[in-house]
Design goal:
This protein is mainly alpha-helical. The chain is built from 18 helices and nine strands. It has one domain. A hairpin with an 8-residue loop joins strand 1 and strand 2. Bound molecules: uridine-diphosphate-N-acetylglucosamine and magnesium ion. GO terms for molecular function: glycosyltransferase activity; metal ion binding; UDP-N-acetylglucosamine-dolichyl-phosphate N-acetylglucosaminephosphotransferase activity.
């Protein structure tokens, strides 16, 4: 049986399993103290937290049950070997069992660390690096099995540098790059959060875009009847990717049904870390991290935009989610506050954050560009600035929204940007790079 068919069947079973388990398990999560307050509802009701552990574990089970379909073919009685097999005469669908198992090990470790974070609320600066630890098995196996450390560079750069080839060997820096991907993906999903549905919604959009990218290669392979070795390895990578994504999207939708507005469950950092790690695993083992980053553009923007708060230039409250207005039920900008010394001294309070003087003109400029919202006191001093999150930025641009509509607006924007990137990836990128492993270019090279 083709592995994508096997994983699709398991994905459907997984979907119904999760849909059944979540309502039954939710009271037990609350009973064990795993709950959070839904800050954007009247009365701030209590909702079970960390429910993402249920789809995450289901996903692992699906992937374990899929192993025989990837690595054993009935025609040969099933031995694990290193053949790249694309037709029925050979033994396996995927060439590397160690690589598959190390992906699963990294995902498992990430789920464990995410759960520990949910249980003990680890400080942001500590938990930031947890994904790097979880990715060690994956990266070590990548080193032992492939050790491919070169990346394509655009034609004009290789011409300018007078290089013989259009790729450059990054050596050790490639491994640093892979660790960065594995740190970035989970964390960037975790900080694009705070409104019902967005944590899962964004992962569904990324998965859809990756599936479209996989289908592009796979259909290309079938159209060209796999007549080049290069195309075959690209085909194998994308069969692997698709087989991981089909169950992923299925469990994500099952979770989304409970997490979307109005949320019945919260997914927890377990989900954010796990889902980010699924993407990191695909990008790293599939050697397509650059393409992956094209689908992470909203998360990259959110990360860069957040960096003054993340790195302490501007105070970063524990929660930066938008502010719920109980009167009209809409989400408005949330702010971080500044105080001046006088107020602190008079009230004899603990010193409160003061806006650094060199930041004042920068914030004023950003406010003129509609990139931030500021509030002033009667003396004209800045006393508040909107929290630097993409969600707040969308509210600045598109106005206050109902929470559910805000989530779907962000998902639509995310899909629009990602789809545009997908089209550019397969049209302009091959021209810039002078080469592409997708079928449209191979068409020109081999036919
Ligand atoms: C990240 C963000 C934080 C944001 C939080 C919301 C950074 C650096 N951190 O922190 O600003 O406020 O996610 O998830 O950007 N919650 C809701 N409604 C939702 C989702 C979450 O009210 O739709 C609240 C609940 O109280 C829930 C809590 O957020 O219990 C979960 O926060 P947590 O995931 O622990 O926050 P962080 O990931 O640390
Ligand atoms: Mg979180």
């Amino acid at each position: 049986m083709h592995p994508t068919i096997a994983t699709s069947v398991l994905a459907i079973i997984g979907y119904f399993t999760i849909t059944n388990i979540i309502p039954q398990a939710s009271p037990f999560f609350i009973h064990r103290g795993l709950f959070g307050k839904d800050m954007s509802k009247r009365g701030k009701p209590i909702i079970p937290e960390s429910i993402g552990i249920i789809p995450a574990i289901t996903y692992l089970f699906i992937m374990f049950l899929s192993i025989p379909f990837f690595f054993i073919k009935s025609s040969t009685g099933g031995k694990f070997n290193n053949l790249i097999s694309l037709n029925n005469s050979t033994d396996t669908w995927l060439s590397s069992l160690p690589s598959y198992l190390s992906s699963m090990l990294s995902l498992e470790s990430m789920i464990l660390l995410g759960l520990i974070d949910d249980l003990f609320d680890i400080r942001w600066r500590h938990k930031f690096f947890l994904p790097a630890i979880a990715s060690i098995p994956l990266i070590i196996i990548y080193y032992l099995e492939f050790n491919k450390t070169s990346i394509l560079i655009p034609n004009f750069i290789s011409n300018y540098l007078q290089l013989n080839s259009n790729s450059i060997d990054l050596g050790i820096f490639y491994y640093i790059y892979m660790f960065s991907i594995s740190i970035f993906c989970p964390n960037s999903i975790n900080i694009l959060a705070g409104i019902n549905g967005i944590e899962v919604g964004q992962t569904i959009i990324i998965a859809i875009l990756l599936i479209l990218n996989d289908l592009y290669y796979i259909l290309g392979h079938h159209l060209l009847s796999g007549n080049s070795l290069l195309l075959q390895s690209a085909y194998e990578i994308h069969i692997f990717s698709l087989s991981l994504l089909i169950p992923f999207i299925s469990i994500s939708i099952a979770l989304f049904n409970f997490n979307k507005y109005p949320s019945k469950v919260f997914v927890g950092d377990t989900w954010c870390y796990f889902s980010g790690m699924v993407f990191a695993v695909l990008g790293i083992s599939g050697h397509y991290a650059k393409t992956l980053m094209l689908f992470f553009i909203p998360q990259i923007i959110n990360f860069i935009y957040s960096s003054p708060q993340l790195f302490g230039l501007i105070p970063c409250p524990r929660h930066r989610l938008p502010k719920f207005n109980e009167i009209d039920g809409l989400m408005y900008n949330s702010f971080t506050e500044y105080f001046n010394n006088e107020i602190d001294d008079i009230n004899n309070e603990k010193k409160k954050p003061i806006l650094k003087s060199y930041l004042k003109p920068i914030l004023s400029l950003l406010s003129k560009l509609k990139l931030i919202k500021l509030e002033y006191n009667e003396k004209g001093d800045i006393i508040k600035s909107s929290n630097l999150t993409l969600i707040n930025l969308v509210i600045i641009w598109f106005g206050p929204h109902n929470e559910g509509e805000l989530c779907s607006l962000i998902m639509k924007l995310q899909f629009f940007v990602g789809f545009t990137m997908l089209v550019l990836r397969h049209s302009i990128a091959p021209i810039i790079f002078g080469f592409d492993n997708s079928w449209s270019m191979l068409n020109r090279f081999y036919i």
